[in-house]
UniProtKB/TrEMBL annotation:
<dbReference type="InterPro" id="IPR011990">
    <property type="entry name" value="TPR-like_helical_dom_sf"/>
</dbReference>
<dbReference type="InterPro" id="IPR001173">
    <property type="entry name" value="Glyco_trans_2-like"/>
</dbReference>
<dbReference type="InterPro" id="IPR029044">
    <property type="entry name" value="Nucleotide-diphossugar_trans"/>
</dbReference>
<comment type="similarity">
    <text>Belongs to the glycosyltransferase 2 family. WaaE/KdtX subfamily.</text>
</comment>
<keyword id="KW-0808">Transferase</keyword>
<feature type="domain" description="Glycosyltransferase 2-like">
    <location>
        <begin position="2"/>
        <end position="80"/>
    </location>
</feature>
<dbReference type="Pfam" id="PF00535">
    <property type="entry name" value="Glycos_transf_2"/>
</dbReference>
<dbReference type="GO" id="GO:0016740">
    <property type="term" value="F:transferase activity"/>
</dbReference>
<protein>
    <submittedName>
        <fullName>Glycosyltransferase family 2 protein</fullName>
    </submittedName>
</protein>
Length: 339
């Protein structure tokens, strides 16, 4: 773990992992709060690192100090919610793969979760590249493990504290690697996080044009691009792109959920065609969400889009059409699915 000024949450992270690992190492990059003392009290070895505006450099120094056959990389604002046995089992396995963990990130008012699959279990010798949103570089296969982490770094309070912190590093990475779709993706996320939808759409579009079909991150990228286009005056472009991407992501509830939102917005702009075209198509998109169900295996999926959120939208649209019985049905369904 690398950390700085994480007194709020570092104990939670370390206590959740301590029963399942042989050793915990925290590399402090300049804390001014009680991070160091709390980490030591929780049983971690703490080392110091002079921050140099390079997350990969800090990660790699931590890996050097760990000097282990297997390394589980965790951030201070994360905690183990499932998979302790899978962590312990690594001690008896040969380090021949990289392990991907399922990260549950709460956002907004805390009622929704964004699911991501991140490579966080590294065998000896693997190192990171990239000064921000760093990635482990290795030809070794990546395997999804039964390990799940909670993450609260996207809460409104935490985002307010972090505003602007990473933008300079992201822009430097963009200038250094202008053809890297990951850099454009993360720069877009930074804009979207703070409501800058037009700038986010520009970055996501650049990432989409540079991405390879079949890349796992394209699911998250597409859904974000469609949403931000819709929020920034690019509704027609979003609908064209959604049609082009149907074959690739037609099995995603997130895709259909955002498509329904776009079609609802289109109906608002074209009221003369709403009843015959826009609203039935939006309804069909959200019904498709329910048919597919939740897809946490898709990187960037949002919990609820294949269940209670889609049912809620269907209740709203039927209510707006004066179809009380259907609206009541979907409200009951939304409550049941959410429970």
């Amino acid at each position: 773990m690398i950390a700085r000024d994480e007194a709020r949450c570092i104990e939670r992270a370390l206590h959740s992992l301590r029963p399942h690992v042989q050793r915990m190492l925290v590399l402090d990059t300049g804390s001014r709060d009680d991070t160091v003392s709390l980490a030591r009290a929780a049983g971690a070895e703490v080392q110091r690192f002079a921050w140099c505006d390079d997350f990969a450099a800090a990660r790699n120094r931590a890996l050097e100090l760990a000097d282990a056959d297997w390394n589980l990389v965790v951030d201070a604002d994360e905690w183990l919610i499932a998979g302790g046995a899978a962590i312990e089992a690594l001690q008896h396995q040969r380090p021949m793969h990289l392990g991907q963990l399922r990260i549950h990130s709460g956002f907004g008012d805390g009622t929704q979760e964004h699911i991501s699959w991140l490579t966080r279990v590294l065998p000896r010798g693997v190192r990171y590249q990239g000064r921000i949103h760093e990635q482990p570089e290795s030809p070794v296969p990546r395997v999804r493990l039964g390990i799940q982490l909670g993450h609260d770094g996207y809460s409104q309070a935490q985002l307010a504290l972090k505003r602007g912190r990473n933008r300079t590093l992201l822009l430097a990475e963009r200038d250094a690697h202008p053809e890297d779709p990951h850099v454009w993706l993360h720069l877009g996320k930074d804009h979207e996080t703070y409501g800058e939808h037009a700038d986010a759409a520009t970055c996501y579009r650049a990432a989409w044009l540079r991405s390879q079909p079949g890349a796992p991150y394209r699911h998250d990228l597409l859904v974000r691009l469609l949403h931000c286009l819709g929020q920034s005056g690019g509704l027609d472009e979003a609908l064209v792109l959604a049609g082009e991407a149907m074959d690739e992501w037609g099995g995603s509830p997130d895709y259909h959920f955002v498509l329904g939102n776009l079609l609802l917005d289109w109906s608002t702009q074209h009221p003369e065609q709403a009843l015959d075209q826009g609203l039935p198509m939006a309804r069909a998109a959200w019904e498709r969400c329910l048919e597919i169900g939740e897809r946490p295996d898709l990187d960037g999926s949002v919990t609820g889009r294949g269940s209670h959120l889609a049912a809620h939208n269907l209740a709203v649209i039927h209510e707006g059409l004066g179809q009380g019985e259907q609206a009541a049905h979907y409200r009951r369904l939304a409550q049941r699915l959410r429970a």
